[in-house]
Amino acid sequence: MLNVNALFTEYPNDKGEIVKAAQNVTFEVPEGKLFTLLGPSGCGKTTTLRSIAGLERPRAGEITVGGITVFSSEKNIFVAPNKRNFGMVFQSYAIWPHMNVFKNVAFPLNVGTKKYSKKEIEDKVMRVLTAVGLDHVADREATKMSGGQQQRLALARALVMEPKLLLLDEPLSNLDAKLRERMRFELKRMQRELGLTTIYVTHDQGEALALSHEIAVMNAGRVVQIGSPRDIYERPTNKFVADFVGLTNFLDATIEAPESEEDRYRVQSSIGQLCVTSMDRFAKGDAVLVSVRPEDVELHETRPDGANIIEAVVDFKVFLGEYMDYQVKIGDQQVLARVHPSFKAPVGGTVYLRLNPEKCITIQDNAQYRKAA
After folding, report:
1. Residue 28, exposed/middle/buried by CB under 10 A (0-12, 13-18, 19+)?
2. What mean pLDDT is reported for the chain?
């Protein structure tokens, strides 16, 4: 449905220096799917979204929607933003304070190039207000709405034009934590029910994991990994993705030998010998990085059976309600474990780590591995 190919967008900053905001960005989004651009501030995700919307003119590349080219540097095509028929919702909802809810949603229909009858406008507006659950407050002043209602109102205004593509730039960032979580489910429900092809920009990893069919993680203007939420979290391909999406433990290691299973290796790590999993191919002596999520570090008070059993000492622990975080030490290496609160090993006590080889992911640090000295 949406194809972005080799997109380069650059602009001068206040000092006249060229900012390389999007560099060779390429991805495609099937119809009816929610695709998220995830990354830290300044990584190029909003610039990429604005380039799709037509609010930025890229230096090079091509953007097609439903087989229609809206931008091509090679063919010298640039379709104006108001001709692209995309719905947009940004951080500030830009609600018109002098209009009620109904008039806010009707506004794009009244000022658009296509003319609608009063009855057509009423039908379209009430249909989208019903979809976002605001049909019962159509006559209410927009400024009297809660944050969550204003967010849904901004969505309704974007949807009323029946856009080919919905573009959302940090739309939940102004909401408090509980409302933000509630709106995640609301957004997901609406997107799935209405079958909206959606590009979603956020720096919030939880939001991206909860909402997306697919995620593109961006850093320094480039896409560094594309995959399903589960792939991004469980199979990061580089240190940046592993570190940015959730918490993880990094262990320096050296490849000793491949195991009998195709994707397994035996390594000597900073906490001892381990059996690990890797999608990449390595040779004996290669220095690598092993990523293990805290929830995948099992703690036991007595030595369990199985592979990857390591003895450790409890350094400190923190009670966090539904789980506990244990910081344990193996020599000079600290490892974070996230366990059920029923586990009650004392600080200074001996515990045993069990690490499932499938959850010990060997990655290439900065997309290249180092030869061990």
Report:
1. middle
2. 89
Provide the H-helix boundaries in the chain: 45-53, 101-111, 118-131, 147-159, 177-194, 205-211, 229-234, 239-244
221: left (phi over 0), alpha (psi -120 to 50) or beta: left
Q: What angle do CA 119, 121, 125 make, to 5 degrees?
A: 120
- Are the C-beta atoms of residues 147 and 177 closer than 8 Å to each other? no
Task: Determine if the pTM surpasses 0.70.
Answer: yes
Q: CA 73 to CA 60: how far, in whole Å?
A: 5
Helix 177-194 vs helix 147-159: crossing angle, to nearest 10: 20
Q: Sign (positive/negative) of CA torsion 19, 46, 213, 183?
A: positive
| CA distance linking residue 125 with residue 109, whole number of Å | 9
Percent of the chain with pLDDT strictly greater than 90: 61
Give the DSSP letter string of 201-218.
EES-HHHHHHH-SEEEEE
Identify the pLDDT of residue 373.
32
* Residue 197 per-residue DSSP state: -
**278 neighbors 235 (Cβ within 8 angstroms):** no
Rounded to an integer, the average pLDDT of 187-200 is 87
CA–CA separation, 171 vs 92, rounded Å? 8
Give backbone dihedrals phi and psi of 255, rounded to 5 degrees, phi first. Answer: -65, 130
Residue with token string 């195709």: 262
